[in-house]
Design brief:
Blueprint: E1 3-7, E2 10-13, E3 18-25, E4 33-39, E5 46-51, E6 57-59, E7 67-72, E8 77-82, E9 91-101, E10 104-107, E11 115-120
Parallel strand pairs: 2-11
Antiparallel strand pairs: 1-3, 3-8, 4-5, 4-9, 5-6, 7-8, 9-10, 9-11
Length: 121
């Protein structure tokens, strides 16, 4: 498994931008599909962005066109560039190695602490 440390969150006004970073170690990061999740209080953890090992990406409809996920295999890092932020984007954001198995995306590692994103109106 990889060990994950998320950073880059903070308080931002609606319409603003943040760039989240996820540093991974402890496994062959290069071959992992990575995802960014978010979880708001009282809600399920939601997968919002996926980047495959080769760099292809996939997004939830709620963030498509506003968020960009990317990875730097040389640095064992994955990023989430968040633009045009909305109050409903407020959540704790987590990264993880993932795979699509048994009809859903599954995370393969224990969760890090996440990074809090708060978008004010």
């Amino acid at each position: 498994q990889v060990h994950l440390v998320e950073s880059g969150g903070g308080l931002v006004q609606a319409g603003g931008s943040l760039r989240l970073s996820c540093a991974a170690s402890g496994s062959a990061f290069r071959i992992n599909t990575m995802g960014w999740y978010r979880q708001a209080p009282g809600k399920e953890r939601e997968l919002v962005a996926v980047v495959f090992s080769g760099g292809s990406t996939k997004y939830a409809d709620s963030v498509k066109g506003r968020f960009t996920i990317s990875r730097d295999n040389a640095e064992n890092a994955v990023y989430l560039q968040m633009s045009s932020l909305k109050p409903e984007d407020t959540a704790v954001y987590y990264c993880n190695a993932i795979g699509f198995l048994d009809t859903r995306w599954r995370s393969f590692n224990s969760w890090g602490q996440g990074t809090q994103v708060t978008v004010s109106s």
